[in-house]
Design brief:
This protein is α+β, with helices and mostly antiparallel strands. It is built from 3 helices and 3 strands; from the N terminus they run βββααα. It has a 3-stranded antiparallel sheet with strand order 1-2-3, with no helix packed on it. The longest helix has 18 residues.
Length: 133
């Protein structure tokens, strides 16, 4: 299996790619087997047609290999907002023990179920008010 390239000091360097669309920048790891085969550094984002399983894909400019699939902007924004809300809630002193355990559990998850999202929204509304919305 191919390992990420190593820098001059022998440590692994992060796979940073230049994208054509800066609003779709996503630092999640590449999720395709082609990442080990493609050593080019320039990429482009291709928006997929509505109804597709994925929103967009990142392609290598040189060899046209699919490097990863990109989330919808609304999904990325919701994940960012949730991370901010969870951070604010962890600093909140007025949480019940159940709420504190809930916040701790969702802090470790990348995706929330609709029920978890609803519960997080309710706790934020009650404990933080409209300051986070």
């Amino acid at each position: 299996m191919n390992a990420p390239p190593e820098n001059a000091t022998g440590g692994r360097q992060a796979a940073r790619r230049k994208t054509a669309c800066s609003t779709l920048i996503d630092d999640t790891p590449l999720a395709c087997g082609a990442q080990g085969d493609c050593e080019h550094s320039e990429t482009r984002i291709e928006i997929l047609p509505p109804g597709s399983v994925h929103f967009a894909k990142e392609l290598c400019l040189n060899c046209e290999r699919v490097l990863r699939f990109m989330p919808k902007p609304a999904t990325a924004q919701r994940q960012h907002t949730n991370a901010f809300r969870v951070a604010k809630l962890t600093m909140c002193n007025g949480l019940t023990s159940w709420e504190r355990e809930f916040v701790k559990s969702v802090a470790q998850q990348r995706k929330l179920s609709p029920k978890q999202q609803s519960c997080l929204d309710r706790i934020c509304a009650e404990r933080l008010g409209d300051a986070v919305r």
